[in-house]
Amino acid sequence: MKKEKKKELQEIAKKRVEKLVNFVIDNSEVKYEDRKKVLELCLKIWKKYNLRNFSVFKRYFYCKNCKKVIIPGETARIRIRGKKKKYITIKCLNCNQNKKIPLSN
Ligand SMILES: [Zn+2]
User: Measured in angstroms, how far is the CA atom of residue 57 from the centroid of ligand 1?
Assistant: First the structure.
């Protein structure tokens, strides 16, 4: 019973984070401070509900190294690399950490 409830809450939280992330992606004209706030809110929800299996957020908007949210185009530089096998590199401009994300297809 308790477990079910937790799962339900996680589902709701996940949808919320998804919505917020999409908002940031779709509204690049929104002020940097506001996008940062939205992503920080995502991080809070994401941690609170332990959304470990929801990797999209962590992959693109969170730097494991300095434990901060990263905003593509602002505090992170994103490049697509590779000839046959394409992958994305995200460089966090806070700590200069690079991470590689393989692109399927
Ligand atoms: Zn970093």
Answer: 15
Query: In angstroms, what is the span from residue 60 Cα to ligand 1's centroid?
Result: 12
- Rounded to the nearest 10 degrees, how much is the dihedral formed by the CA atoms of 31, 46, 100, 21? -40
Q: Phi and psi for 38 in degrees, rounded to 5?
A: -60, -45
Q: Is the overall model pTM greater than 0.85, yes or no? A: no
82: left (phi over 0), alpha (psi -120 to 50) or beta: left
* CA 65–ligand 1 middle distance (angstroms): 5
Report the separation in Å between the CA atom of 67 and the middle of ligand 1, taken as the mean of its atom positions. Answer: 7
Would you call 35 exposed, middle or buried from its count of C-beta atoms within 10 A (0-12, 13-18, 19+)? buried
pLDDT at 76: 93
- What mean pLDDT comes out for the span 32-59? 90
Q: Which residues lie below 8 Å from residue 27, measured CB to CB, with a gap of 6+?
A: 35
Q: For residue 5, how far is its CA from the centre of ligand 1 (angstroms)?
A: 34
